[in-house]
Amino acid sequence: MPPTIAIIAAGAMGAGVAQRLTANGVTVLTSLAGRSAASAKRAAAAGMRDADDPTLAEADFVLSILPPGDAVALAQRLAPALAAAKRKTIYVDCNAVSPPTAQAVADIIAPTGCGFVDAGIIGPPPKPGSTNTKIYASGPRAQELATLNDFGLIVRPLEGPLTAASALKMSYAGITKGLTALGTAMMLAATRGGSAEALQAELADSQRDLLTYFERAVPGMYGKAYRWVAELDEIAAFVGHDRPESAMLSAAARLYEDIAADVAGDKREIAVLDRFLKR
Fold first, then answer.
1. N- to C-terminal Cα distance for the chain?
2. DSSP-based three-state secondary structure for 179
């Protein structure tokens, strides 16, 4: 019997995961309370059904897939419904948060009597036929989440502490999003310094693979930069604020703040980056 899954919210990733599940016969619930028309449209396209919090709490699994800054607030919001539910779900925090934040969510869920799984999603929103998106899961109930491998997802349980999945997500995202931030910063600096054409030519000659990565990753970041701010701050906390590299990751968060403001504003820096990348 296919399970019933609650996914909050119907963003690009949440709707992508939902679409993969509904295509495999799973009933997927969500909450559209306070959500935009675009979210409602994504939810409908993915086959998600709107439900109130008590109904969400009765699902077999509740998957929290949100911007990282909203992870704790959602757990706090759902805790009363989870505590009141006769049937105890497994709450799965899939957000890009540091292990201490994941533990804070687990601590909110524990008094409700529900299970908890820490999870980290690596890859883009799932597409039909693609195997690029994996959900790493940790904690004593992680093997139960792996049952969703039978319904179109790729779930990989991890050995280790409860928050091992968040530690993996932070490490992986710190590399990929940190590298994208570094490339963005130096393209802008080279342009200000009058050496953009020379840098682009040298990368094409001696670092072709790296330039190819930037050609894909930097434009792909424009619409996501606002969401990456909190994620990079979480990664900086994960590294440890007593470590010098934490400042590097915090600086990347501030860069993404600037890019997000530029996207919403006059797009001057976006134009500079596009010229560098010959878009």
1. 49
2. helix
Question: Encoding tokens for residue 274?
Answer: 């596009």
Rounded Cα distance, 243 and 196, in Å: 32
List the beta strands (DSSP E) in the chain.
4-8, 27-30, 49-50, 61-64, 90-93, 115-122, 134-138, 155-157
Tokens matching residue 23 = 């295509």
Q: Over the stretch 23-41, which tens digit does the pLDDT of each residue have?
A: 999 999 999 998 999 999 9
Give me the sheet containing 61-64, strands edge to edge. Answer: 49-50, 27-30, 4-8, 61-64, 90-93, 115-122, 134-138, 155-157
Q: In sequence order, what are the residues at sequence separation of 6 or more whose Cβ sits closer than 8 angstroms to the Cβ of residue 43?
A: 10, 15, 18, 30, 32, 35, 50
User: How large is the average pLDDT for residues 90-114?
Assistant: 97
**pLDDT at residue 130 in the model:** 87
Measure Cα distances from 253 to 77, 124, 260, 269 in Å: 27, 20, 10, 16
Q: Identify the structural domains of the chain with CATH numbers, from first to last.
A: 4-161 (3.40.50.720), 167-276 (1.10.1040)
Query: How many helices (H) and strands (E) are present in the chain, helices listed first?
Result: 12, 8
**Can you tell me which residue has the tokens 């883009």?**
124
Mean pLDDT of 72-89: 98
